[in-house]
Amino acid sequence: MEFRPGLENVVAAETTISFLDVENEEIVIRGYDLIELAETKSYVEVAFLLLEGKLPSEQERARFENELLAKRELPDVLYDVFSKLPKTTHPMDALRTGISILAGFDPLIDDRSEQANKTKSINLLGQMPSILASSYHLLNQQEVIPPDENLSYSANFLYMITGKKPTELETKIFDRSLIAYIEHEMPNSTFAARVISSTHADLYGALAGAVSSLKGHLHGGANEAVMYLIEEAGTKENFERLIKQKLANKERIMGFGHRVYMKKMDPRALLMKKALQQLSEQRGDFRLLEICEAGETIMREEKGLYPNLDYYAAPVYYMLGIPIDLYTPIFFSARTAGLCAHVIEQHNNNRLFRPRVKYTGKRSLKVQQ
Ligand SMILES: CC(=O)SCCNC(=O)CCNC(=O)[C@H](O)C(C)(C)COP(=O)(O)OP(=O)(O)OC[C@H]1O[C@@H](n2cnc3c(N)ncnc32)[C@H](O)[C@@H]1OP(=O)(O)O
Ligand SMILES: O=C([O-])CC(=O)C(=O)O
């Protein structure tokens, strides 16, 4: 039996959902190129594509978006729990708690049929913005911002976080970031969700496990860590110095490197870099763009490493006025569509995940009598 640390290059599932075609620099989502989807479609349309396997007609999009918007209300107990959690709770932990509580409210909890799983997925996708925004506000002893009926899914999501009606450009960029995060083949969190659902566990359990995985700094938690590093530096010169110092100490720089892209730029990072350029030009404020470009150059020169999505999503979120500890929950919220598609696929064609080990421990020890 062959052992590959980190399961590098091990094929863990057969799927029709997505594939990283690194050679051709394409992230294939149900047959489409993710970057093209991000430039031409809305998050709601790509979520529909993931769940239904095809892009929606205009009528289907409107119905689906209305369905999501109609699910925004949460059971009262969630608001109550969020307001009672220790104020130091990270919103990712509140989010995990929220998903666990919702499980108890689902009459179809143990139904793994495709239809029941789709119903759960739509409920969760609709509720996700409310969970994020309300948990953040309640943890910070602020009023919860009620949804605005007249806004699109993404505009309302941003509004419930910031309390400000976003401009058209802000909505477009936020929506694009959600598409960038929506699905990415077999990252650690998706693998976790598939492993959990392979025991016939329910979709909520699989997603709660995925939240835990995605919170880590080597995965989704990197977007927050990037922004804290930029904030700590404040200027381009300090950022360059800080990166060099960390590299000299053999520390990792968050937002760089990727198991699959290795020494190539993540196509989604370029998408978000363009968004940062747009926001910077529109505001006449190039500070974050200059800092990030300086970091990108140093990492390429010193380590031959390129930015991943988290590196450029972080300053984009900062410029959109989003609190830093919501960056990773937003990543998860966007990823919900992809994760649900994977749980559905796993449940529809299941075999229990149960790998083996390469044992390096002791043998033949005798118990002392
Ligand atoms: C949207 C996402 O979730 S993308 C991932 C977000 N995560 C990050 O940005 C965290 C920073 N990046 C990393 O830690 C890594 O690049 C990972 C975890 C993403 C991928 O790691 P792996 O494929 O396991 O590569 P591995 O950890 O073996 O690293 C290979 C080499 O590159 C170095 N390296 C990889 N990434 C970085 C980095 N960001 N900074 C400095 N060095 C790095 C490692 O130190 C290692 O060097 P060595 O061979 O001299 O020991
Ligand atoms: O693919 C990965 O390993 C991590 C990643 O970029 C993602 O989940 O978007």
UniProtKB/TrEMBL annotation:
Stored PROSITE patterns: CITRATE_SYNTHASE (PS00480)
Domain of life: Bacteria
Annotated catalysed reactions: oxaloacetate + acetyl-CoA + H2O = citrate + CoA + H(+)
A single Gene Ontology CC term: cytosol
Alphabetical list of Pfam families matching this protein: Citrate_synt
A Gene Ontology BP annotation from the UniProt entry: carbohydrate metabolic process
InterPro entries, sorted: 2-MeCitrate/Citrate_synth_II, Citrate_synth-like_lrg_a-sub, Citrate_synth-like_sm_a-sub, Citrate_synthase, Citrate_synthase_AS, Citrate_synthase_bac-typ, Citrate_synthase_sf
Listed GO MF terms: citrate synthase activity
Family: Belongs to the citrate synthase family.
Protein name: Citrate synthase
